[in-house]
Each structure stands twice: as C-alpha cells, then as structure tokens.
Amino acid sequence: MTDIYLVRHGQASFGKANYDKLSELGTQQAQWLGDYFKHRGIQFESVFMGDMVRHRETKEGIAQGIGSSIHQLPEATIDSGLNEFNFQAVAKAFLTQFPEHSVPEGASSSDYYRLLKKAMIAWSQNRLDETLLDETWPQFEQRVSRIFKHLQALDAERVLVVSSGGAIAMMLKQILGYDDAMVINMNLQIRNASFSQCFANTRGVHLNNFNSVPHLDVLDRLHAITYS
CA–CA separation, 195 vs 201, rounded Å? Predict the structure, then answer.
C-alpha cells in the first residue's frame, strides 16, 4: 500500500505581476510543514512535483523544515501533469465572451474569486472559446488523471506530491467520483501548504484526510492559514 500526500503549494504572490512565486509567508508555511513531517517521523521514499516555480519553492521549503536529519527528501521527479491550469487565460477567455462580469481595478480578493468561479464553471461546460485557452477542461482532466494513475502504481511506501489546488481537486475526483462542479468547489477550499492524504493499492485509492494543516492550526500561527 502506498501512502500519498497531496500538498498544495504555499501562499503565492496574489495580486503581483508574477503570481508564480511564493510570498514570504508561503515560504514559512512550507518550512513549518517540513518541520511537522520531521517531528512526526514521516519519511518519503519518492517526491513528485509540477514544474512551476511555486511548486519548486514549496518543495525546497519543506526540505528546509526537515533539515539535515536522516529524513531528508529524495530528489523530486518533475511532471507537468501536476501543474495548475492557467487561471488567467480562463478568466480572460470568460471576460472576452461575458464582459459584463468584469470586476473593477482594485476589487477585493473575494470579487476575483467569484469571477474565477464563474469562469471555471463556463470552462468546465465547454462554453469558452478554445482558441483563447491553453487547454480544454477535458484535456486538464486527462493530464491530471495520467499522473495520478502513475502515482497509484508506484512501488513506494510513502510519496510526497507538491501541486496546486485545481490539480489536487481533480485528483480527488478520481478517488471520490464527484462531478465537475464539485471539482471547482473543492479547488477553492484547498488551503496553502495543506495536505490531503490517500492510500493506494491494487484494489483502488481511499481518501484518509483532506485539506489538513496541523502545522498551522496552533494559536500563534492561525494568521498563516490562507487560500491564495
């Protein structure tokens, strides 16, 4: 049986020109997660991550939190199947067709999340112009399904996977069998530097826990529970 930890990257640089980079808090979240793994004696035989900067920086933060003990992380296998979808392209394609849903400059993060949810719903229903997208919703699902099937087949006791909220929500669809609307809802719930844990064997995959942040759920770190 393989114990798979699906970790979402730490807080990224929301509202900045380059989102694909951890904030200072995001780096700290990853380090705290690594420290949690170290003190719980959780060791990983294999590590997988997407090829995005925030994935690499999260993996590096986890490694720093683990430190130079015998529990050091092995070299990561990089697979673009674990990448997030291009949410900026999805939102732009949606606003091209539905400009009445635009939000004003300087709007709150909640306004942007509501816009993204509307855009993702339209994307999942194949209502957006494919020429404006990096990939269709079925293509997104197919590439995530491919890497998840590979993870299921690994001969390893415990595997660390560093990815993004959308890809993790899509992987959970493979386990729980929910519909596309729930993929979107789950995506928007997944916290930074959280882990969802599942067990895989020849009979299937079983979810053990979802969206856990025990390394942040302490009094002096509650401010560090974030979603962006």
Answer: 19
In the chain, where are the structural domains located?
2-84+135-224, 86-134
CATH code at 2-84+135-224: 3.40.50.1240
Give the three-state DSSP class for 114. Answer: helix
Q: Which residues contact 185 (CB under 8 A, 6 or more apart)?
A: none
**Sole residue written with tokens 């890809």:** 167
- Distance spanning both ends of the chain, measured CA to CA: 33
Residue 14 has what pLDDT?
A: 60
Which pLDDT tens digit goes with each residue over 111-130? 888 999 999 999 999 999 99
Neighbours of 136 (CB within 10 A): 14
Segment (H or E) for 34: helix 24-39
Positions in the chain whose pLDDT score sits under 70: 14-18, 69
| CA–CA dist 30, 98 (Å, integer) | 37
Torsion angle (degrees, nearest 10) of CA 162, 166, 168, 171 = -130
Q: Report yes or no on whether pTM surpasses 0.90.
A: yes
Pairing of strands 158-163, 46-49: parallel
